[in-house]
Design brief:
Blueprint: H1 20-23, E1 30-36, E2 39-45, E3 48-53, E4 56-63, H2 67-75, E5 77-82, H3 88-94, H4 104-108, E6 112-113, E7 122-123, E8 128-140, E9 143-155, E10 175-178, E11 181-183, H5 200-234, H6 251-255
Antiparallel strand pairs: 1-2, 1-5, 3-4, 4-9, 5-8, 6-7, 8-9, 10-11
Length: about 270
């Protein structure tokens, strides 16, 4: 087939353009806090992005009807609190209510501490915090883009160094996938940079081959473990699958009663 017209690869599906924002989901969800005339408010937000490095500027996009829009426009400042998974249900709950009708901090009993440069409170239990002054307000469609200049940045050292760390699970930031679904970072992968003079095609092909070889080795090792597991199950013995990820187990292993090596056997034991 001519290069002028090539069909998409198998499995590629065209979806409505309204899905564009959903495809961009997956970044850390923040809790935006603001204070005006002694009243504080908080709302979850996934639409945020760095806009400039010199000077440092970040943007947050909020639907025009949200109470937070009025709060930030009056206060001309806000704070971003990067929620961790212990705050999962708080994040979802806060997105379902309006601060115009209820004091969200009183309702959720979130613990806060005092910010360094803004009046908005900072929420305990988060992985990082950014205090911002509003530099520009830009209406865009049904949203308002607030361009913020960071005034102070704080991080939990167990969650962030020069970049996000994948350490203690409770310290990892929540990533919003859409609806009521969230995720968090699971592992760090390090890409290899080519040496000067390396041909890009040869370098990338070699790295891909190496990664595939490692993946195949892991698959073979896992198949061997699952084979041993099946033999134990068929023999009617208790099994221990703590070394295997539950999501990777085949249906036969997920449906059985799983016992640890020291678990006493009762009448229902296999």
């Amino acid at each position: 087939m001519s290069d002028l017209f090539r069909l998409p690869p198998e499995g590629v599906e065209r979806v409505p353009v309204t899905y564009a924002s959903r495809v961009l989901m997956g970044g850390p969800v923040v809790l935006v806090t603001s204070t005006y005339r002694g009243q504080s408010n908080v709302m979850p937000l996934a639409w945020h992005a760095p806009l400039s490095s010199k000077p440092p500027l970040i943007g947050i996009s909020i639907e025009q009807s949200r109470h937070t829009v009025d709060m930030i426009q009056h206060a001309q400042e806000f704070a971003l609190n990067f929620a961790t998974w212990p705050l999962l249900h708080h994040v979802q709950y806060l997105g379902a209510m309006s601060g115009e009708h209820i004091d969200k901090f009183e309702a959720t009993q979130l613990e806060t501490f005092t910010a360094a440069r803004v009046s908005a409170p900072l929420i305990e239990g988060c992985a990082a915090w950014i205090e911002c002054a509003v530099e520009q307000v830009v209406p865009i469609g049904d949203h308002v883009l607030f361009v913020g200049a960071p005034l102070a940045v704080h991080v939990d050292r167990e969650a962030f160094g020069e970049r996000w760390l994948v350490g203690v699970e409770e310290k990892r930031p929540l990533h919003f996938l859409g609806g009521n679904q969230y995720a968090h970072l699971d592992r760090v992968m390090e890409a290899r940079s080519p040496a000067r003079g390396d041909a890009p095609e040869a370098f990338l092909a070699a790295q891909l081959a190496e990664d595939l070889e490692l993946t195949q080795e892991a698959r073979e090792r896992r198949e061997e473990q699952l084979g041993q597991l099946r033999e134990e199950i068929e023999a009617g013995r208790a099994v221990d699958i703590t070394a295997l990820a539950a999501e990777g187990l085949p249906e036969f292993a997920r449906r059985i009663q799983i016992l640890g090596p020291n678990t006493p056997r009762g009448d229902s034991a296999p």
